[in-house]
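Take a look at my tokenised protein here and describe the backbone shape.
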Amino acid sequence: MFAALGLVPLLLTSTACAAEPESPIEPPPQNRSEWTMPLDEFVSNDAHLRDYAEALLERDCYAEHGIEWLVPWQPTDVGAGPSFSAGEHRLFTSTLATEFGYHTAPNTYNGVSEWREFVARASEIANTTPDFGSIMDDCQARSRKALPTPSNEALYYATEAALTLSAQAETDEAVAQPGKEWAACMSSKGYDGVPTNPLEWPSDALEEQWQVGIPGSTPAPDEIAMATADADCAESSGWSEAFYQANWSRQIDFIAENADRLVRIRSELKDDKRRLLRAVAENAPTK
């Protein structure tokens, strides 16, 4: 438990053997504000669901060791939060920038307070129970026997591919030119000396100054002002659209070249989610 154009749909049939026929790969409608991408459906994003299902299955094991493992009710559709796409790409829009600056938006959902309390209690139990490490290993082994984790390929292949393709898209000339226009736009708003790649901003020094990424920190007014200008310039310069399209086209090509493998991954992730949902349905407490 402790443990991110309307195109003609691209239909790619898998030749892999499966118990049920797999549906073709069809890219979703484009949605830049949510950074919808063709590889999204192959990205594993059920981390919270797995934590919840494993915690539920571990209750009896902990009880055998004299530990009360009070797992609260949780929804089964918890994602990474408003600052991340379905493919776990970091979102940066004017709407987010004006409220959160360069900070990520809090991942609030029905039951989040109860889950945080549970994690805090679990940490306290871990710190005060003799030989807790061995107990945890035993209980986790039991839950993982019922809920085996997907293969590394299923967990990381699409995510790593998306990151590689995004890095390639950064250097595309169709993206680089709007990047220069973004920098000129930032300069016109009083922010000189920025790079020509918006992804390289803000600087490490500014992130440290504003405590970006530090739990509990909140955005400062000057951070919000700069982030809002940043997001507005990324839009008006055409950089956001160009970067989105450069990513999209590369992912379309990648899917065409790796369809069989991706269909196999999709099937594995679907099977895993079915097991997790079944475990929750059979063991969840009342809301």
